[in-house]
C-alpha cells in the first residue's frame, strides 16, 4: 500500500453526496418498510426490546406486590402463573437476547469498518419475525390466553393432557418466531465479522466487543436449534398426537428437559457474553488505555463459549440422574469460574493501570463487577450437585440468576446505552440523570435480590403465587418489593433521560469520549453508507494510533451499493461484491411466515397452505436482480 | 414449625449445610479479594483531568504475572469445592440400616403417602403428612401420576423430583424431633403454592403408636348425625374420589380420608385442620384453593353438618 | 468527523467470487450449520428413545421396509454426479451447460420426491402410534423438507436463468445451490442409517 495524495475536500464531499443517494432509503412508510440499513433496523430492535423490557418489568412489580405480604390476594393463581411465565419468556426471548443483538447489529458493521451488515434483507426479515413473536405472546396475554407453564414449559404440564387450550402452543410458537430471528441475525453477524472487516483488521486486532459477538453468534447457531426442535416436538405432541414426551407410549418427559437446557444454558451466555464486550469497550475508553491481557480476554470468551455447552445437566440435578454424570457436570460448571475470573481480573487491572474517568458508563462497569461477581460465586454454589438439591427451584436461584443476568448483562447494557447513545441518536445523555438512574437501580437491585438468597435458604420455593405467614419469610419479601419499586424509579429516570435527550438537537460530536474504535470515526449518528472510504486498520485502537487522520482505502463504487470482502483471519481485501437494495420482500416473507406459524397453532394443515404465500414471498425475495456488475439477490 | 435448610434435623441436611458453610467461606474470601482489588484500583489514581491523551503502547508484565497467580488461586478453590461436593454426594448416596420404606406419589396438588414397611397388612396410607421415627433411616420412593413435582423438606434433605414414568429414591435419616414443613418445589400448575407436607419426626415409640392408629379402619359413626354423614358421603360425589378404610368408599382419585381428622392440615397445607375449616373447605373449595380438583358439592345445611361431623370423627 | 488520508485503492479487486470467497456462500454455510445441528439433535433424540425401550422397534412394530429406501438412496447419491458437473460448469461461467444442468437437476429432484413419497407408507409405523413412530417420522420429515425447499429453489432459479441475462453473481448462486444439494445428499446418509438400519441392529 503506497501513500496516495490526499483527495481534495470537495471530491470527498461529492462522493459522500453520491453515497448518500445510493445508500439512502425512500422517505415515509415505504422507506420504513423496505429499509435494509442495519442502523435503522437495529434502532427499531432497540426501541422494541426496551418497550417489552418495561412491560415485563411491570409484570415483575405486580408479582412483587402480590408477594409483599403473606397470603396475598391481589392476583389469582392463574394470573400469577401467567405473569411469571410471560415475565420470564419476555425477558429471555424478547428482551435480553434481541437487545444484545440489536446493539451488535448497530455497532458491529461500524466497528469493523463496513458499509452494511452481510445479509441486510435477512436482517430486515429477522426484525419483523421478532416483532411477530413478541406480539403473539403479548396479544395472547392481554386476551387472557397467555402461557402459564413457566418460561421453560416442562412436559407433561405443557403437554396435551395438562395444558388444554392454546396457551402452551402460543408459548412454543413465540419461541419459534424469536429463534428464527436470532438465527438469521447470528448468521449475518458471523459473516460480517469474518468476511467484512476493514483491511488490516486481523483477528488479533479485532475489538473485544466484536470478539464477544462472534462467540455469541456461533453459540446461537449451535444452541437455538435445540429449543426450536423441542418446542416443535411439543406442538406436534399437542396437535398431531405424536408421543415424544408421553411415557406411556415410549416417550420420556426428561427428554424435554435435556433438549431445553442444551439450549437454555448456552442461552444465558448468549445474553451475557455481549455484555462482557460492552464492559471491555467502556473500560478501555474510560481507563484511557487498552484492556490489560487482551489475548487472555479473547481466550476466556472462547473458553466460555465452549464450556457453556457442557453444563446443561446442572439444571437437572434433582431429576435423579446418575450421580457419576452429575459429578462431571459439577466440575464442568465450576470450571467456567476460571475464564470468568480471568476477565474480572483483567478489567480491574485495566482500571488499576489506567487513568480512569468515572463517567456514568464507568459507574455501570463498577456496579457490574460488584454485582456480577456475587452471581458468579452463587453460580459455583448451585453448580455443586448435592448442594443444588437444597438450592434448586428456590428463591436462592432467583437471586442467583438475577445477579447474573441483571448485574452481569443489564448493568453493562445500561452503561453501553449511555456510552453509545450519541452514536445511536446524535445526542449525549445527561450525566446527572444517568447517575441518579445508576444509583437507584444499583441500590434497588441489591435490596430486591440480596434478601432472596436468604429466602431460598429458608425454604421458599420459586413460582408460588402466595406463601403462608409464620415461616420467617415476611421481612425479606417486603424488602424485595420495596427494592423492586426503587428499580422502577430508576427505570423511569432512564426513560426521562432518553426523552429529554431526544428533544435536544442532534449535535453530538463524532467522538465525544475520545474513544479508540472505528465506530467513533464517523458522524453521530452515522450516514446511511457509514464510511466514505473503507478504513485501513493497523492497530487494536485505531483512533488512538494516529491522532491527526484516519488511513482509508478508496475505490468502492458510489453509484451502486458495493462492499469489500476480506479474508477471515488477516482481513486482506479479496473482492468487491454488491450489497442488496431496499425491498419489501423481507416484510412480506415475514408476514407469510407469521400466518404460517400462527395458523399452525390452530391446524397442522397451515403448514401446507401457509407454505404457498411463503414460497411466493421467498421467490420474490431471492429473485435475482442485476444492479451492479454482479447483481446480488442475497 | 420450620421450613429451612439452615436448621437441619437429619443427616442429609446436616451434611449439605456443612457443604454450604464451606462454599460460603471460600466464595466470600474470593469476593473480598475482588472487591479489595477493585477498591484499590479506583482509589489509587487521583482523579485525572478529562481527556488525557490515552496510552497506547503499554506492556503489563507485572499484571500478567498477577493474573497467573489469580488463576492458580481460582483453580485451587475450585478443586477444593469440587472435591467437597463429590464427597458429600457420595455420603448422600449411602443407604442406612433397616430403612423404613415410604412411597410418596405427587398429584395435582397433594401428596399420597404410603408406608410400605413390613408385611402388606401393616401398610398404611395417608395424605399430605409424613411421620418419621427418630434415628431410623427412611427410604422414600418417589413417583408421580400426572405432572412433575419435587419432594422437598429442607430441614431434612435436598429435593428430588417426582417424574411420571420414572421412579426416584432418596434417603432421610432424622436426628432431631420436631415438626417441619415440606413443599412441592417443581412448578406443577395452578396450585403449586398449596402443595405442602406436614412432617413430624418423633421417637420410634410414638411413631409406632401413630402407625397402629392409622392401621385401624375408620371409626364407626358414634351418633345418628354422624351415621347420616356417612350416608351423605356415600351418596354424594365424595365417595367417587375418596377412600375411607372399613367403608364402601374405596376410590383412589383423591386423598385417603380414613383418619382425616387426625391430620393437622387440610388440602395439602392450604389451611390448618379444624372442624370449622373442614366445613368451609367442603362448602367452597374453590374459594380456599382456586383451581383445586375438589368440586363444591351441593349439600343442604343438614347434610353439610352431618358430613362434617362424620369426617371430624375420623381421628 | 475525522480527517482521512487515502492509503490504498480497492477498485482493482475482482467484482465477483465463487464458493468460500463469496459472502453469500457463508450465509449458506451458516444455515447448513443450523440445520446440521437440528439433524444431529434429532438423531440424538432417536438414540435416546431407543435407549429407553426394551425392544427397538417396540413390539409389535416391524422395522421399515428396505426396498424403496434403497432405490431412493442410490438415486439420491447418483444425482451427485450431475450436481458436481453443474457446479464446475457454473464456475466456468458456461451458460448453456449451466442451464442444461439446472433443468436436469430440477427433473431429478422431482423424481426423487416421488420416490420419497413411496417411502412413507413403508415405514410400517404411524407417527401417532408410539414414540418410535414419532421420531422416525420426525427424521423423515426433516429431511424431506430439505428436499422440497432445495428442489423449489432450483426450479425457480432455473426459470430465472432462461428468462434473464445471467451475470457472474448468478453463476455463483448456481454454484452455491449445488453445494447445498450436496449437503442435502450427505445428511441423508446418517438419517438413512438411523431410520432403516438402527432398528435392525440389536
Explained architecture:
The complex is a heterotrimer of chains A (634), B (315) and C (202). Chain A has 2 domains: 32-520, Cytochrome c oxidase-like, subunit I domain (Cytochrome C Oxidase, Chain A), CATH 1.20.210; 584-624. Chain A contains 20 helices and 4 strands. Chain A has helices at 9-23, 28-34, 38-67, 77-111, 120-142, 167-195, 208-239, 253-287, 294-307, 323-335, 337-353, 360-383, 385-391, 395-425, 431-457, 474-503, 542-545, 585-602, 606-609, 611-622; strands at 534-535, 550-554, 562-566, 573-578. The longest helix of chain A is centred in the first third of the chain and has 35 residues, at 77-111. Chain A is globular, with a radius of gyration of 25 Å. Chain B is of the alpha+beta class. In chain B, a hairpin with an 8-residue loop joins strand 6 and strand 7 (160-162). The longest helix of chain B is centred in the first third of the chain and has 34 residues, at 11-44. The mean pLDDT of chain B is 93. With 202 residues, chain C is an all-alpha fold. Chain C is elongated, with a radius of gyration of 21 Å. The mean pLDDT of chain C is 93. Classes of the chains: A mainly alpha (634), B alpha+beta (315), C mainly alpha (202). The interface between A and B is large, with 91 and 90 residues.
Defining traits:
heterotrimer; A: 634 residues; mainly alpha; Cytochrome C Oxidase, Chain A; 2 domains; two-stranded antiparallel ribbon; two-stranded antiparallel sheet; 20 helices; 4 strands; globular; disordered C terminus; B: 315 residues; alpha+beta; five-stranded mixed sheet; three-stranded mixed sheet; 38% helix
What is the structure about, briefly put?
The complex is a heterotrimer of chains A (634), B (315) and C (202). Chain A is mostly helical and 634 residues long.
Decide which structural class fits the backbone of chain A. mainly alpha
Which structural category fits the helices and strands of chain C? mainly alpha
CATH architecture of the largest domain in chain A: Up-down Bundle
Number of strands of chain A: 4
Biggest sheet of chain C, in brief?
A: none
- Residues in β-strands, percent of chain C: under 5%
- For CATH, the homologous superfamily of the largest domain in chain A is named as Cytochrome c oxidase-like, subunit I domain
Mean pLDDT of chain A: 93
Q: Looking at the structure, what is the overall shape of chain C? A: elongated
Amino acid at each position: 500500500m503506497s501513500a496516495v495524495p490526499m483527495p481534495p475536500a470537495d471530491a470527498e464531499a461529492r462522493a459522500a453526496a453520491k453515497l448518500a443517494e445510493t445508500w439512502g432509503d425512500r422517505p415515509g412508510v415505504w422507506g420504513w418498510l423496505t429499509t435494509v440499513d442495519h442502523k435503522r433496523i437495529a434502532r427499531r430492535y432497540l426501541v422494541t426490546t426496551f418497550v417489552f423490557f418495561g412491560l415485563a418489568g411491570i409484570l415483575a412489580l405486580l408479582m412483587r406486590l402480590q408477594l409483599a405480604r403473606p397470603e396475598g390476594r391481589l392476583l389469582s393463581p392463574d394470573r400469577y402463573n401467567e405473569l411469571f411465565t410471560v415475565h420470564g419468556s419476555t425477558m429471555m426471548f424478547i428482551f435480553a437476547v434481541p437487545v444484545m443483538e440489536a446493539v451488535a447489529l448497530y455497532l458491529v458493521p461500524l466497528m469493523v469498518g463496513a458499509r452494511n451488515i452481510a445479509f441486510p434483507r435477512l436482517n430486515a426479515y429477522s426484525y419483523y419475525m421478532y416483532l411477530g413473536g413478541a406480539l403473539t405472546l403479548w396479544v395472547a396475554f392481554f386476551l387472557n390466553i397467555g402461557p402459564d407453564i413457566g418460561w421453560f414449559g416442562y412436559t407433561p404440564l405443557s403437554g396435551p393432557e395438562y395444558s388444554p387450550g392454546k396457551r402452551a402452543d402460543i408459548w412454543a410458537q413465540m419461541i419459534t418466531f424469536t429463534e428464527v430471528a436470532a438465527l438469521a441475525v447470528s448468521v449475518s453477524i458471523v459473516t460480517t465479522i469474518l468476511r467484512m472487516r476493514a483491511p488490516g483488521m486481523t483477528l488479533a486486532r479485532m475489538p473485544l466487543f466484536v470478539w464477544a459477538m462472534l462467540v455469541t453468534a456461533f453459540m446461537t447457531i449451535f444452541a437455538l436449534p435445540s429449543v426450536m426442535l423441542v418446542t416443535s416436538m411439543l406442538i406436534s405432541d399437542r396437535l398431531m398426537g405424536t408421543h415424544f414426551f408421553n411415557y406411556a407410549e415410549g416417550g420420556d418427559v426428561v427428554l424435554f428437559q435435556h433438549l431445553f437446557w442444551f439450549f437454555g444454558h448456552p442461552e444465558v451466555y448468549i445474553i451475557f457474553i455481549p455484555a462482557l464486550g460492552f464492559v471491555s469497550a467502556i473500560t478501555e475508553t474510560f481507563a484511557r488505555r487498552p484492556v490489560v491481557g487482551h489475548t487472555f480476554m479473547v481466550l476466556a470468551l472462547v473458553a466460555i463459549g465452549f464450556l457453556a455447552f457442557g453444563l446443561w445437566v446442572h439444571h437437572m440435578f434433582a431429576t435423579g440422574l446418575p450421580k457419576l454424570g452429575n459429578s462431571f457436570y459439577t466440575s464442568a460448571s465450576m470450571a467456567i469460574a476460571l475464564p470468568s475470573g480471568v476477565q474480572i481480573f483483567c478489567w480491574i487491572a485495566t482500571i488499576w493501570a489506567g487513568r480512569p474517568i468515572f463517567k456514568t458508563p464507568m459507574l455501570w462497569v463498577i456496579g457490574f463487577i460488584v454485582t456480577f461477581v456475587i452471581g458468579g460465586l452463587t453460580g459455583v454454589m448451585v453448580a455443586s450437585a448435592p448442594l443444588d438439591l437444597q438450592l434448586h427451584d428456590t428463591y436462592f436461584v432467583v437471586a442467583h440468576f438475577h445477579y447474573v443476568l441483571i448485574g452481569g448483562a443489564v448493568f453493562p447494557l445500561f452503561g453501553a446505552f449511555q456510552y453509545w447513545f450519541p452514536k445511536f441518536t446524535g445526542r449525549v445523555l445527561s450525566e446527572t440523570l444517568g447517575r441518579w438512574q445508576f444509583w437507584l437501580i444499583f441500590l434497588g437491585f441489591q435490596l430486591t435480590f440480596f434478601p432472596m438468597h436468604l429466602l431460598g435458604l429458608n425454604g421458599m420455593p420459586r413460582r408460588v403465587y402466595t406463601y403462608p405467614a409464620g415461616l420467617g419469610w415476611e421481612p425479606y419479601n417486603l424488602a424485595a418489593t420495596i427494592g423492586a419499586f426503587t428499580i422502577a424509579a430508576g427505570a423511569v429516570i432512564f426513560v426521562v433521560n432518553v426523552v429529554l435527550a431526544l428533544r435536544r438537537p442532534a449535535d453530538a460530536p463524532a467522538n465525544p469520549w475520545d474513544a479508540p474504535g472505528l465506530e467513533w470515526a464517523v458522524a453521530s449518528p452515522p450516514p446511511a453508507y457509514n464510511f466514505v472510504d473503507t478504513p485501513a486498520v493497523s492497530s487494536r485502537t485505531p483512533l488512538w494510533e494516529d491522532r491527526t487522520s484516519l488511513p482509508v482505502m478508496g475505490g468502492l463504487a458510489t453509484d451502486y451499493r458495493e462492499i469489500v470482502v476480506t479474508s477471515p483471519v488477516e482481513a486482506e481485501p479479496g473482492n468487491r461484491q454488491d450489497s442488496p437494495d431496499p425491498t419489501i420482500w423481507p416484510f412480506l416473507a415475514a408476514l407469510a411466515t407469521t400466518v404460517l406459524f400462527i395458523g399452525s397453532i390452530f391446524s397442522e394443515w397451515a403448514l401446507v397452505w401457509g407454505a404457498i404465500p411463503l414460497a411466493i414471498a421467498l421467490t420474490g425475495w431471492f429473485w435475482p436482480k442485476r444492479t451492479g456488475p454482479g447483481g446480488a439477490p442475497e | 414449625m420450620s421450613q429451612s435448610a439452615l436448621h437441619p434435623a437429619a443427616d442429609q441436611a446436616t451434611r449439605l449445610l456443612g457443604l454450604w458453610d464451606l462454599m460460603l467461606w471460600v466464595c466470600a474470601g474470593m469476593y473480598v479479594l475482588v472487591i479489595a482489588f477493585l477498591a484499590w484500583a479506583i482509589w489509587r489514581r487521583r482523579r485525572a483531568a478529562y481527556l488525557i491523551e490515552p496510552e497506547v503502547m503499554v506492556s503489563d508484565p507485572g499484571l500478567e504475572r498477577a493474573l497467573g497467580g489469580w488463576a492458580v488461586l481460582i483453580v485451587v478453590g475450585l478443586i477444593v469445592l469440587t472435591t467437597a461436593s463429590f464427597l458429600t454426594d457420595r455420603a448422600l448416596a449411602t443407604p442406612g440400616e433397616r430403612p423404613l420404606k415410604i412411597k410418596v406419589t405427587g398429584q395435582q396438588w397433594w401428596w399420597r403417602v404410603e408406608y410400605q414397611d413390613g408385611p402388606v397388612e401393616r401398610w398404611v396410607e395417608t395424605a399430605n403428612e409424613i411421620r418419621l421415627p427418630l434415628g431410623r433411616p427412611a427410604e422414600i420412593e418417589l413417583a408421580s401420576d400426572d405432572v412433575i413435582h419435587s419432594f422437598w423438606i429442607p430441614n431434612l434433605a435436598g429435593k428430588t423430583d417426582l417424574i411420571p414414568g420414572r421412579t426416584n429414591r432418596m434417603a432421610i435419616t432424622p436426628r432431631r424431633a420436631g415438626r417441619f414443613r415440606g413443599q412441592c418445589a417443581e412448578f406443577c400448575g395452578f396450585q403449586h403454592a398449596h402443595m405442602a407436607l406436614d412432617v413430624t419426626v418423633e421417637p420410634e415409640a410414638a411413631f409406632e403408636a401413630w402407625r397402629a392408629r392409622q392401621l385401624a379402619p375408620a371409626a364407626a359413626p358414634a351418633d345418628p348425625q354422624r351415621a347420616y354423614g356417612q350416608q351423605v358421603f356415600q351418596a354424594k360425589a365424595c365417595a367417587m374420589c375418596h377412600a375411607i378404610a372399613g367403608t364402601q368408599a374405596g376410590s383412589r382419585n383423591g386423598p385417603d380420608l380414613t383418619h382425616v381428622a387426625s391430620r393437622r392440615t387440610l388440602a395439602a397445607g392450604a389451611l390448618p385442620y379444624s372442624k370449622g375449616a373442614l366445613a368451609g373447605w367442603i362448602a367452597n373449595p374453590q374459594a380456599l384453593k382456586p383451581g383445586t380438583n375438589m368440586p363444591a358439592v351441593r349439600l343442604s345445611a343438614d347434610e353439610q353438618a352431618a358430613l362434617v361431623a362424620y369426617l371430624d370423627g375420623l381421628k | 468527523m475525522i480527517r482521512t488520508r487515502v492509503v490504498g485503492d480497492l477498485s482493482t479487486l475482482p467484482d465477483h467470487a465463487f464458493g468460500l470467497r463469496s459472502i453469500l456462500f457463508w450465509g449458506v454455510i451458516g444455515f447448513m450449520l443450523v440445520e446440521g445441528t437440528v439433524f444431529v439433535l434429532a438423531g440424538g433424540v432417536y438414540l435416546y428413545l431407543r435407549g429407553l425401550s426394551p425392544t427397538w422397534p417396540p413390539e409389535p412394530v416391524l422395522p421399515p421396509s428396505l426396498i424403496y429406501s434403497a432405490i431412493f438412496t442410490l438415486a439420491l447419491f447418483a444425482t451427485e454426479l450431475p450436481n458436481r458437473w453443474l457446479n464446475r460448469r457454473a464456475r466456468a461461467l458456461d451458460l448453456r451447460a449451466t442451464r442444461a444442468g439446472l433443468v436436469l437437476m430440477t427433473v431429478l429432484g422431482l423424481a426423487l420426491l416421488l420416490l420419497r413419497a413411496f417411502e412413507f407408507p413403508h415405514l410400517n409405523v404411524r407417527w401417532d402410534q408410539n414414540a418410535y413412530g414419532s421420531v422416525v417420522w420426525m427424521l423423515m420429515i426433516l429431511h424431506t423438507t430439505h428436499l422440497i425447499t432445495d428442489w423449489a429453489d432450483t426450479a425457480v432459479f432455473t426459470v430465472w436463468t432462461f428468462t434473464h441475462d445471467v451475470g457472474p453473481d448468478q453463476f455463483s448462486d448456481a454454484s452455491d445451490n449445488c453445494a447445498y444439494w450436496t449437503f442435502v445428499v450427505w445428511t441423508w446418509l446418517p438419517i438413512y442409517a438411523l431410520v432403516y438400519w438402527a432398528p435392525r441392529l440389536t
